[in-house]
TrEMBL record:
Domain of life: Bacteria
The protein's name in its UniProt record: Phosphatidylglycerophosphatase B
InterPro entries per UniProt: PAP2/HPO, PAP2/HPO_sf
TM spans (from-to): 27-50, 70-94, 103-123, 143-160, 172-190
PANTHER family in alphabetical order: AT30094P (PTHR14969:SF13), SPHINGOSINE-1-PHOSPHATE PHOSPHOHYDROLASE (PTHR14969)
The keyword Cell wall biogenesis/degradation belongs to this UniProt entry's keyword annotation: no
One Pfam family named in its UniProt record: PAP2
Phosphatidic acid phosphatase type 2/haloperoxidase domain: residues covered: 102-213
High-level lineage: Bacteria, Bacillati, Bacillota, Bacilli, Lactobacillales
The entry's keywords: Membrane, Transmembrane, Transmembrane helix
Species assigned in the record: Companilactobacillus bobalius DSM 19674
Length: 231
C-alpha cells in the first residue's frame, strides 16, 4: 500500500506554488473562526444582536415567491449537490490528465466533511425557531455554505486557471462569490441557520482549504526529498 501511494505521489506535479503569505492567511482564518465559535458558544450579546438584526431584516422579506426562490437556491447549494459538483470537477480534471488535482479535491471533500461534522457535534448549537422549511441537526456550521465554499475554492484555484482570458476568470470569480452570498442568505431567510452560522461556515471552509494547502506543500516537499535521496 505504501509503495502504491509512493508511486502515485511520484507522478504528481506541484498543484500549489509555495507562498509566504499562506501561513499568515491560515493563522488569520483560524483565529477569527475560533473567536467567532467562542462567542457563539458563550452566547455573546454582540453575536446575538447581530443575528437577530439580520433575521429581522430577512423576516420582513418573507413571501410565497421569495420562499419558493430561496428554497430552490438552498437545494442547489445543499450538501448532496455540493458533493455532486465536486465529484464532477474531479471527473473533469481526471479526464484532462490532472490526476493530482482530482485526488486533491477528493481529499478536501472527505476531510472537510469530517471537520465540519466534528465542529457541529462540539458546538451543538440549536437551529433558529420558526423554520420555514424542515431542517434537522445542529446549526453551526452550515453544511450548505461550507460545501458551497469548497466548491467555489476548487473552481477558482483548480479550474479557472485553465482559462487564458483574465477578464473571463475575474467575471466567473465574481459570479461564484455572488452565488456563495446568495446561498448563505437563503439559509438565513429559511431560518435554517443564524447569520453567524453561515459566516463561520465560510471561514471554516477557507481555514481548512488553506491548512490543507500547507499540508500538501509540506508532504510534497518530503516526498520529493525522499525521491531525490533514493535517486
Amino acid at each position: 500500500m505504501c509503495t502504491f501511494i509512493f508511486l502515485i505521489q511520484r507522478s504528481f506535479i506541484l498543484i500549489f506554488k509555495p507562498n509566504n503569505h499562506r501561513k499568515w492567511l491560515s493563522l488569520i482564518y483560524v483565529v477569527i473562526f475560533f473567536l467567532l465559535e467562542i462567542m457563539i458558544v458563550s452566547n455573546n450579546s454582540f453575536i446575538l444582536g447581530f443575528d437577530h438584526s439580520i433575521q429581522n431584516i430577512l423576516g420582513s422579506m418573507v413571501s410565497p415567491t421569495n420562499t419558493k426562490l430561496f428554497s430552490t437556491i438552498t437545494f442547489l447549494g445543499s450538501p448532496i449537490m455540493d458533493v455532486i459538483y465536486l465529484l464532477l470537477i474531479m471527473f473533469i480534471l481526471f479526464k484532462r490528465g490532472k490526476k493530482d488535482s482530482s485526488l486533491w479535491i477528493g481529499f478536501i471533500l472527505i476531510s472537510g466533511n469530517v471537520i465540519a461534522f466534528l465542529v457541529k457535534m462540539t458546538v451543538r448549537r440549536q437551529r433558529p425557531l420558526g423554520k420555514i422549511i424542515p431542517a434537522s441537526g445542529y446549526s453551526f456550521p452550515s453544511g450548505h455554505v461550507f460545501g458551497t465554499t469548497l466548491v467555489i475554492l476548487a473552481l477558482i484555484f483548480l479550474v479557472l486557471p485553465t482559462i487564458k482570458k483574465v477578464s473571463t476568470r475575474k467575471t466567473i470569480t465574481g459570479l461564484l462569490i455572488i452565488w456563495l452570498i446568495i446561498v448563505a442568505i437563503s439559509r438565513v431567510y429559511l431560518r435554517g441557520h443564524f447569520p453567524s452560522d453561515v459566516i463561520g461556515s465560510a471561514l471554516l471552509a477557507g481555514t481548512w482549504w488553506e491548512c490543507c494547502e500547507l499540508l500538501y506543500l509540506r508532504y510534497y516537499d518530503s516526498i520529493a526529498h525522499l525521491i531525490d535521496h533514493k535517486d
